[in-house]
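*** Protein under study ***
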Amino acid sequence: MSTTFPARVVVVDDSALMRNIVTRSLTRAGVEVVGSARDGDEALAVCERERPDAMTLDLTMPGLDGLGVLRALRERTDTNIPVVVVSAFSAAHGARAVDALAEGAFDLVSKPTANEGLDAFIDNLGVKVKAAAASRHKPRTSPPVFTLAPSNPAADAGTGAALPRPVPVRRKVSRLVLIATSTGGPRALAALVPKLPAPLGVGTLIVQHMPAGFTGSLAARLNASSRLNVVEAAGGESLDPGTALLAPGGRHLRLSPDGRTELSEDPAIGGLRPRADLLIEDAARAYGERLLLVVLTGMGNDGLRGAREVRRRGGRILVESEETCTVYGMPRAIVDGGLADEVIDLGRLPEAIANEALP
């Protein structure tokens, strides 16, 4: 398969209107739509014929539904088609969308509502579909595990001056664990969070980039399989070693100096709300060397600005290795900035986090 673009994409939705909206949105974003389908069986047939670089997929369809399509694609060893779920939100849709991400969907885009403009939807969909298509051709490498960062490589934001690497604090302290992730995050969290001990450090905070309304379902799914009590943050909570608080989609999660959570309706930053940088900076100021930042798979560089603050305050930073990332974007930004204390495969992160967070 050629790696040249525009990416070739199949659009799947039971609504002719929605297929038209998605097709026009992708075309505007510079993506070539090579086929469309109204149900799962038709989608598989079109994929067999066209061999696209990626697919957009509705979940609720007659006959074979979206989850069935994902399972069928996974079972076909000769098929590797990244899928971006395009879903409306309701309690049922939210749970099914999280199920789809667990089944291997690349990412999730919320369908536009009647009172929302299309521009944000078009931009978001285009970025995620292009990233999905590119991931199909991504060369896989095997970076070292537990590789220490260089002793003095980072540059201070805005000045270019090198930041001295603080000597790691070797006395054992309980730490606040803060996990930041985006694309591929639900699957990574499903592999990581259930393996974490409870209680864990001072408490656990999680920022996962997801549309508003879907994070409650993600929290419930993680909670069902975890020793930690995983809940969507409502604001006003105190940190608890037995609880992991997940930032709600569509709002920024903040942390007050006394360690209580706050929710903010401030505008999105870089198209993201929640923005991990905001919470990381709050936590670094409040906890200093008692903060453990963990950056998992995701597009972009959210977390980089916050990681610089963690570094200044003497906290610790672990990042997921490229080998196990769905998208090596957020972790790469930390590594390239010389800010990572250790680069670790996902399967070894639970033990590393427990060792860092527990006294």
